[in-house]
Amino acid sequence: MFDYHLHTPYCRHASGSMDEYVLKAMERAVEEICFTPHLPLPDFPRGGRDLRMDREDLDRYVADVHRLRARFPDFPILCGIEADYYDGYEGYLEKILSRYPFDLVLLSVHFVHSWPGDNWLFGFDFPDKSISQIYSEYFAEIKKALKTGLFDCVAHLDVIKQPGSPVLQSNSADIIEILDLCQAINMSVEINTSGLRKRVAEIYPARDILDLVVARDLPLVTSSDAHDPQSVAHAFPDLLALLKSLPDCRIARYRQRSPTFISARNLG
């Protein structure tokens, strides 16, 4: 199994050293990992929410990955990034992503440009909007991001979901459009166990969405979205059993943003 979504102290909301993440991954028999701290966005109106690196952290982060590769030469350590899409930053993203030797660029949306205040995805309170409309506004940002062609994999696709309000039940057209876009541009979709640690208590994406992903033969990227070493490979035994139960499911592994694929049946 691979854990391709690990945060670092550079994000300011993750704990533990990068070395500790590596050691925990090795202890839990993870075959390879990818660090993915949040990409800096200069002058971003983050409303006091420290979620990402500052611009000067990028070089230090890449150097840290090289240091870890030297310390653990027999353990594959990828240099990735979680790149938030935010309307108006497309040019900056294109420029910065071309400057660094990333192995994987995850697409995420944590802020919806049209929402008031600091646009925070998890702070919405819109009594005049249905849950379907709120979901749709989030998915509209995902669609815009996909159309830029700047990313490799959609991270935690249905992270907006709320308990008791299944996404596919109300927004199936949005999901189908997103998956069709992924198929058209050869994107992968992350299967992320962090939702099991949250109030929603299920993986991202939900099983009914996952079935649509697999039906389109879209490759999956496995991850824990760990923000501390103890969460590395969280619930991976259960995830492995799920993946092996899916028909002809492909798992993506990346090098320099280029994927290769293995069958989930061959995962250990």
What does this structure look like?
The strands form two sheets. A seven-stranded parallel beta sheet has the order 1-2-3-4-5-6-7. Strands 8-9 form a two-stranded antiparallel ribbon. α4 runs parallel beside α5 and α5 packs parallel to α6. It is built from seven helices and nine strands. The chain has helices at 18-27, 57-71, 90-97, 131-148, 167-184, 207-215, 236-245; strands at residues 2-6, 32-35, 77-84, 104-108, 153-154, 188-192, 220-223, 250-255, 258-263. The protein is globular. The model has no long low-confidence stretch (mean pLDDT 94). It has one domain: Metal-dependent hydrolases (TIM Barrel, Alpha-Beta Barrel), CATH 3.20.20. With 268 residues, the protein is α/β, with parallel strands linked by helices.
Task: List strands and helices in order, with pairings.
Blueprint: E1 2-6, H1 18-27, E2 32-35, H2 57-71, E3 77-84, H3 90-97, E4 104-108, H4 131-148, E5 153-154, H5 167-184, E6 188-192, H6 207-215, E7 220-223, H7 236-245, E8 250-255, E9 258-263
Parallel strand pairs: 1-2, 2-3, 3-4, 4-5, 5-6, 6-7
Antiparallel strand pairs: 8-9
Helix pairs in contact: 4-5, 5-6
**Mean pLDDT across all amino acids:** 94
> Which word captures the global form?
globular
The DSSP helix count reads 7
Low-pLDDT parts are none
Reading the helices and strands in chain order gives: EHEHEHEHEHEHEHEE
- Beta strand %: 15-25%
Q: What oligomerization state is this entry in?
A: single chain
Please give the order of strands in the largest beta sheet: 1-2-3-4-5-6-7
